[in-house]
Amino acid sequence: MTGTPRPQPLAVLIRDVTRLESLRTAKDVQRAYAHFIQAGRWAEAAALFATDATVHWGAQEIHGRARIGAWLQDRLKGAAAQGWLNTEIIDEPVAHISPHSSVVYARWAGMAFRGDGAGQALIEGGVYENEYVLRDGRWLIASLRYFPQFDGPYATGWTNAGGRELAIVPTHFGAFDAGIPLMAPVGDHIEGAQPADADDIAARIDRLNAEDDVRNLAHAYGYYVDRRMWDDVVDLFDTVATVTLEGLEFHGVEGVRHAHERLGPPGLRYGEVNERPQFDLMVEIAPDGREATARGIQLGILGDVTAGEAHWEFGVLSMRLRKSDDDRWRIGHLEVALLLRASYAEGWGSGGIAASIGTLARGRPLPPGVDPHWRQTAAETGGPPAHGFDDPRTDLADLERRFRRSAAYDGIENVSGAYGYFLDDFRWADMAALFAHGGHKQSAFAGYAVGREAILGTAIACYGPTRPFRTAVSFHWRTQPVIHVSPDARSANLRTRLFQPRTAITPDATPHDFYMGGLHSGMYPNDQAVLEEGAWRLWSLAVDEHYFASHSWKGGWSGVAPRPPGEAPRRSIVLDRYPPHILLRDIVPREVGFRGGPGRLIEWPEILPMWFHYRNPVSGRIPEHFWPDCVPSAVAPETRMTAHGYQHPPNGPQPADLPNEVPSLCGHRDQNVK
């Protein structure tokens, strides 16, 4: 009797690698769209759509690539004007590839900053639920669905879109499949998949792993710049690196330091804001796997409370990187192209300062790293072999393990983004279900709830049940991830930025505690995730906030006065309605200074500490505020992943004088827990 033959392991691995490459390519198609839109390149943006694509933009519907191109051209018709601005940041992806591998579904958060250079400026934001299809060997946008959530002129600030309550926008995913980006496949072969042997597939997996490393390094660079950690910044560069800032070139180690010190002396002083979040970062690995490019949209949120100054910056961050003989990536060249700078008081409607987008749009070539289809080209052409057939790195078990580490990166990014969306929508049951059994979550300004039941109970007790409409939303964008996956690909450490626009029907200000307009900032510095029951789930979630806050739209982040002496911050309702298992006030010294923690409250415009779970990815330098394990582990060792059978992920090169067991380093600095 003859049955259907079982698939060969290599064939299955080729299928899975192709699916992950496809997922990442579809995400890069959307990122490329954001880059082309910012540059006013409507034709290149239109070419990212399928010929029969559809755009649903609020109440508008546009069908077919040609009409979409005309729609984009009309939207970007001012691109040649001096001072024109159309920066759309589209980030926080939750993406899945279908069982037949023919469609990718992705949800994104979007926020646009628009200006005509002649006095008009506005801001708008919402969410996307998009679909991407494979046509003629290329992934393209099949359906772009944008759901507006807030908008308004710059002069008065934004409010809810349409001036009404906001409906919940359904997600294409649920709590239990959010962390499974590669849906269970149908069949063992993918249409268009290129034949490959073990050597070919090893090279492709190397490129996937390299993408993760380069993305981590680029994002880590951004966090170091935020806090002017110039020693750590310099460590990331090659000794013969070059830096181009505002048209000026700097060379070598001292040049790298001097270029960055133009942004200010090391560290932040009272009332200083130096946030430069990255969005839509695209990474391209060269065929030899030893060189790479990275390109992202950089938003500058800058200011000084003491001087009463605040500015916006819009720019493009691009890097060329190379892998050294020690197998560590380093930056060989960095350029920050400043497109527009504007004072907060005036906005960018009249073009601001250093307006150069018009020049960019009139033919200046875009930096490398904007081709979303480079993975498919690499798979089609093969590229130089990375390893010989007798190399142990072509062992199928090792290839599978290394592949799963890259697949984990996308799964963790998914569950991280899903948490933000469910939290914004008050979908408490789904939010709690994102956590692993035994996982724990910080309730802001209070402490940690352990276990799904407590996480769900806390949310409902404090904020009420899920409802179909909301009068106000405090968005929780979780962007700029730095993800370190364990060798066995079953656990990970995760860091993301909290980028927090807020909206309401009427943005009434409540000094010192809450304001439903403007921007706020924080960090999720010590999150962890585990692979449980075939899905990535959150193990630990910790939030440090707020690094800065806007107490009114008019005043912004620099129009903030310190809390009057003797006025206490509002007590968290969590403490009374659903007391946490672990209180922030007991986690000394990790929570010192944070609201709800021990010691004197440090509140904007004072500068809160920025904590890191990782060492410098090149030098292994240990940051001043270093906490490599989950936050509550200091007082509750049973909350550690390692107490539940998981490996502790690596967190950067190990200095020679320190042991190799990361958990033993939890709180290793003098100011940390002994």
Strand content: 25-35%
Strand pairing plus helix content: what structural class? alpha+beta
Radius of gyration (CA) equals 24 Å
Strands, total number:
27
The end-to-end span amounts to 67 Å
Mean of all residue-level pLDDT scores: 90
Number of helices: 12
Q: What is the global morphology?
A: globular
Name the poorly predicted regions: 357-364, 657-674
Oligomer: single chain
Biggest sheet descriptor: 9 strands, mixed
Helix content: 10-25%
What do you see in this structure?
The model is unreliable at 357-364 and 657-674 (pLDDT under 50). Helix content is 23%, strand content 32%. With 674 residues, the protein is of the alpha+beta class. A hairpin with a 5-residue loop joins strand 6 and strand 7 (159-160). The longest helix has 30 residues, at 9-38. Strands 16, 17, 19, 20, 21, 24, 25, 26 and 27 form a nine-stranded mixed β-sheet that branches. Helix 1 (9-38) packs parallel to helix 4 and helix 4 (198-226) packs across helix 9. It has twelve helices and 27 strands. It has helices at 9-38, 42-46, 65-75, 198-226, 230-235, 252-261, 357-361, 374-381, 396-424, 428-433, 452-463, 574-577; strands at 49-57, 60-63, 85-97, 103-115, 121-135, 138-153, 159-160, 166-167, 237-245, 248-251, 272-275, 278-285, 291-304, 309-323, 329-343, 435-443, 447-450, 469-470, 472-474, 477-485, 491-504, 509-510, 514-515, 519-532, 535-541, 544-549, 582-583. The relative contact order is 0.12.
Keywords:
alpha+beta, 9-stranded mixed β-sheet, 27 strands, disordered C terminus
What's the arrangement of secondary structure elements?
Blueprint lengths: L8 H30 L3 H5 L2 E9 L2 E4 L1 H11 L9 E13 L5 E13 L5 E15 L2 E16 L5 E2 L5 E2 L30 H29 L3 H6 L1 E9 L2 E4 H10 L10 E4 L2 E8 L5 E14 L4 E15 L5 E15 L13 H5 L12 H8 L14 H29 L3 H6 L1 E9 L3 E4 L1 H12 L5 E2 L1 E3 L2 E9 L5 E14 L4 E2 L3 E2 L3 E14 L2 E7 L2 E6 L24 H4 L4 E2 L91
Parallel strand pairs: 1-6, 9-15, 16-25
Antiparallel strand pairs: 1-2, 3-4, 4-5, 5-6, 6-7, 8-18, 9-10, 11-13, 12-13, 13-14, 14-15, 16-17, 17-27, 19-21, 20-21, 21-24, 22-23, 24-25, 24-26
Helix pairs in contact: 1-4, 1-9, 4-9
